[in-house]
Amino acid sequence: MKEKRILVSVLAIIFMISLSSTVVGADQTDKLIRILIEKGIITSEEAKSLEKEVKEEPSPKEVKEEVSAADEWTKKIEVGYKKGAYIKTADERFSLKLNVRTQGQFKYEAREEREDTADFRVRRARLLAGGNVFYPWMKYGTQITLESSEAALRDAWIEAAYFDWAKPRIGQYKVPFDREFLTSAFSLQLIDRSIASNEFSLQRDIGTQFSGDILPDLLEYSVGVFNGSGANQSNVDRDFMYVGRMVLTPFGSYPYSQAALDTPATPKLAVGVAGTYLPGLEPGERKTLAGRLGNTNILPVESDVYQLTADLAFKYQDFSFEGGYHFRSIDPDEPTPFGKETAQGFYLQAGYFVIPKELELAARYAWVNPDNPNNKNDNNQQEYTAGLSYYLYGHDLKLQANYSFFRTETATSDRDDHAVQGQVTLAF
């Protein structure tokens, strides 16, 4: 019982000491400690330990100053969500926005003269980070691909957007060529892009460009010089790829996004043209994320390549339409059995919201005449695709189902393939 009373007394005295440190001050605390020693409740060594603990406790003034400093810091930083989780400084000199995008897909293929296939897969999984540094107009952007077995760099660029009419950019990103590929795969009204885009798109490359508005919300342009070897690839020689694109938007700005989710009350229209020149392109030079020109069956010897495209996009109320035409010429730098080759293709696509902003029906027809010796009309390809999309939260959360019919013409017969796809898109 005596030990219990001593323990209770010590706890009570320690509480009084703590209280006295905030009320009566350090002098009275010292007196209390001396009384404890004289009464034999604590030893001198224990008293020194108590004094040290009391002195280490912050004063009310110090606590107030720490809270005030924390409040000042939080006033300089803003954290939130706006089309992505972000953190930025109040003076807008620094910002970082993070996005996660993923698509889960099921696909069944019935291919003539080949075994049918069916599988679930992660069609796309991406991490994006971008914002500005040092100045509001000094922009940057990055994108990492995660759907394969290894992470890979997709985008990494820096842009000085000080002038709206001239924004220099350097790094790796989408080549400013055809509208269909410039539209994000997460903003499509059908699950995949057309066979025309797959055949003629230049996809991604490393280089520099200037872009901007010649006339705000009316006429925009992009001109660039790229390695010509594709993404994550060094230039193999001293030749480059030269690209230029111009877009007319007579009724105001037209974003690179399909489907009339904004149900515009007045018509919206965008008409674009683009061209590219790749002098001395070597067989197999264009590798990752670079399109079909890396195929040595298409480009078997060093050649000069020219490509042209024209596209049109239209939206009004619940209706949307998009189409594009492609042309390519491959001119070998050395004699070949077939000489110069050309290819062309186009796609037409339309969508209509049965339930505005929620349920959309869409369809597409595409045709490609690939590069062929002596320009023979052989191996022509056709695509018919119909789709249904249910938008739970715009393009950021949607369910899609597609049916596609593909026909490939050959010299002896036609090959018909079918594909059924279902996809869930989540982007935030």
Structure write-up:
This protein is of the alpha+beta class and 428 residues long. The protein has two domains: 2-57; 92-427, Porin, CATH 2.40.160. 18% of the residues lie in helices and 47% in strands. The chain contains six helices and 18 strands. The chain has helices spanning 2-23, 26-38, 44-56, 60-76, 179-182, 195-200, and strands at 77-81, 85-89, 95-111, 117-132, 138-145, 152-160, 167-174, 204-215, 219-226, 241-248, 268-281, 303-316, 319-332, 341-355, 359-369, 381-391, 397-409, 414-427. A hairpin with a 5-residue loop joins strand 4 and strand 5. The model is unreliable at 14-25 (pLDDT under 50).
> How do the strands line up in the largest sheet?
3-4-5-6-7-8-9-10-11-12-13-14-15-16-17-18
Number of domains: 2
The quaternary state of the protein chains shown equals single chain
Structure annotation, total helices:
6
Q: Give the name of the CATH superfamily of the largest domain.
A: Porin
Q: How many beta-strand elements?
A: 18
The secondary-structure element order is HHHHEEEEEEEHHEEEEEEEEEEE
CATH class of the largest domain: Mainly Beta
The overall pLDDT, averaged over residues, is 88
Overall body shape: elongated
Biggest sheet, in brief? Answer: 16 strands, antiparallel, barrel
Computed structural class? alpha+beta
Instruction: Using the coordinates shown, work out and report the CATH topology of the largest domain.
Output: Porin
- Which second-level CATH architecture of the largest domain applies? Beta Barrel
Radius of gyration: 33 Å
The unreliable regions are 14-25
Terminal Cα span? 65 Å
The portion of residues forming beta strands comes to over 45%
Percentage of residues assigned to helices: 10-25%
